[in-house]
Amino acid sequence: MSKVEVVIAEDELWIRSMIGEMVEKLGPEFHVVCEVGNGEDAWSYIEESWPSIVITDIMMPRKNGLWLAEQIATQELPIISIIVSGYDNFQYAKQAMRFGISEYVLKPVNEEELHDALRRSVQRLAGLSDTRQTIARIQKFAETLPDLAQTEVQQAIDHVVNETYRLKVPGHVRSKLLNALSNQMNAFLHGIDSGYPVRPLEAGTEAEVRRHFQGLIASWIDLYPKYANQHVRMAIRKVCEHLDEHYAKTYSLPEAAEMAHLSVSHFSSLFKKSTGLTYLNYVNQLRIEKAKEELLAPEVKIYEVAAAVGFASLPYFNRIFKQLTGVTPQEYRKRLGI
User: Fold this and answer.
1) What averages of pLDDT result for each successive group of 10 residues across the chain (338 residues)?
2) Which of 183, 209, 227 lies at the terminal end of a domain, its last residue?
3) Does pTM surpass 0.70?
4) Do residues 246 and 284 share a domain?
5) How far apart (Å, rounded) are the C-alpha atoms in residues 153 and 239?
6) Which candidate in 25, 127, 167, 208 could, as Cys together with 204 as Cys, close a disulfide (CB 3.0–4.6 Å)?
7) In angstroms, how far is the first alpha carbon of the chain from the final one?
């Protein structure tokens, strides 16, 4: 089985950690890539990284789980949502079903029930493989756009559009995918020039769709010299410097993008190009490097180290530490004779 990336959105810290442990106990192919306490932060991560499965509580601050499920359903993203709730209320179940959610797990969460829901979700993902591959192409395009020369943008967009039209999917699904590509390009152009008039993709014939993308390419060629200006890249460097100094404070992806005065999409692309990592992975790696330094002091407890570098959950800290170093914090200390 290929890697299954799971996002957990749950505002109760101990439940969030418990669910994460349950997920990764199911098998090595399951990876918890993000743990957040509200739907808004989960959506920010989804827009950047497109996970396989989202496990979300219903009642959360800022944006709840039903709002999150609605965003995924409205955008028709090839992501499976699993609702976890302590409210045995059929009204919630009915609302969840409206968004195409068939997995509804009640609290307290039973490990076997969650595992069964995850297995069924993986089976459903198999039916979305073509769509997920196209989403991956769009992601790849967005990530490589900062590196593309003016003449290469045409070829890259044509490739994604051609592959999208080859898909054997309903027309409305194809339209959503083409919209996603258009939105990525528009966001990037707007990030270069805040005065750029965003041009959404209108439903139309294949020829009209291709003309729309030709217009976006023309705008890219026009704005490229401004993009090449060093001040845009300097903005990313300043964000990195701020994170290096304030690594224990949690900044959401939109907050980091705002620091750079860039759109989320543009910031994500430039950040990955500049650092080689997604924003979340950069922050995690930074924190783990700081944690290694803190672990050298034998009198400091591991949970104190986790809190000092910005992890609200000890189990999550342990998992990320092992993912990045291959050992647990305790094993790391033993290897150093601490």
Assistant:
1) 86 89 90 88 82 92 91 86 79 78 89 95 86 80 75 86 87 84 83 81 88 91 68 80 93 85 76 84 94 93 94 88 92 90
2) 227
3) no
4) yes
5) 27
6) 208
7) 38
